[in-house]
Amino acid sequence: MMVALDGTIVAIANPAIQKDLGASFADVQWITNGYFLALAVTLITAGKLGDRFGHRQTFLIGVVGFAAASGAIGLSGSIALVVTFRVFQGLFGALLMPAALGLLRATFPAEKLNMAIGIWGMVIGASTAGGPILGGLLVQHVSWQSVFFINVPVGVAALVLGLLILTDHRAQNAPRSFDIPGIALLSGAMFCLVWALIKAPAWGWGSGLTWAFLAASVLGFALFALWETRVEEPLIPLGLFRSVPLSAGVVLMVLMAIAFLGGLFFVTFYLQNVHGMSPVDAGLHLLPLTGMMIVGSPLAGALITKTGPRIPLAGGMALTAISMYGMSTLDTGTSGAVMSLWFAGLGLGLAPVMVGATEVIVGNAPMELSGVAGGLQQAAMQIGGSLGTAVLGAVMASKVDGDLAGNWADAKLPPLTPAQLDQASQAVQVGAAPVAKGTPAQLAERITTVAHDTFVSGMSLACLVAAVVALVAVFVALLTKRGENADAAGAGAGHI
Length: 496
Known about the structure:
mainly alpha
């Protein structure tokens, strides 16, 4: 809950942090980017640490470090310290997430594993979608520091309960050494990939820098794959990917995150800037999405236990595709009831995917690699989220840039210079109307109408692309099946 919540809760606190610490827009972006970068780059390595030293120890260290980093951010008096401790948050969060899945895999037998992952998925989904609501309430009524301080008591409770309840399960043939070159190559490749995705909106997709980092990432992954075939105890045995269901589960997780997190990115701007809602109201309008994920995840766990993952996963992605298509039809006058219908459909579609894809990845990996499998699952979601935001952001920017000048001229508004048009386009990409101070009310209203209509056309195209991605994921879901190694869960691990 802490790790997922901190992925979205901070977005609401960013304006208050910027004002209080006198930070630039680029500085504030790093509050989010530093966290996601550290998390994505280290997840698989952190999973390996859990396989090597035990998931209980890794989990508890992650809890303590995450809570301590959170408290340190709340006490920070400069933006540099905030960003530094956010990186530490990401590093300790990376220890937590795969270890949690490794513990579930080792503790629950096959017939109960899906329900356990269902409850886990429910918490992840609710925390991700509920972050803006809680963040809005805390920032509005307490302070931006409280967004981070809230993790401290949660961390203390998790530590105490963890020490009392969790037992250490280790597979008999758990890894005994570390693949240091493999860790370096994988971390470097992941860094270059995520860095390129983060910086692409600023550098431009046609920029030599963007393509240089993407090329470095491809080279890094190729060298990593080559090295893993030659080392005695590899970080990720490439034989894992001979399992078609496991590979399909990883791809499915990436596609799901592209559609979900990429699409959700624009919806928050739509609610706040086009409909003029406060952060708290915008969060409340997303409650149907959160609610359906909370209700749907345990139900999906029970269904997958009975029928296997293939049909629930394909059906979930089909419903996600339909809901994203529905969201592409939203306009400036859409009612709350219609929005709620599509948000609820999205939550209900995502629930079986969050649960089922996780079970497919973790259940099809050998017990001694459950931490690495958990790291793969989380890394796939982080990369998918970054990819979705970057690619759908580029689609949105291209549509707005292409339409704004024509829409502006059609509305017979005063002509803009190229520099003014570029500034206006950047505002419209987040749903804001570029109205200068002192503009007459009638003219301001016409500018606002053009800005909102242009933004909505861009959002519609981005949601259509997300719907197509979700549709492709339906066919990927048909390649999945129940974990081949799931029967080892809860039985095959030795207790230490």
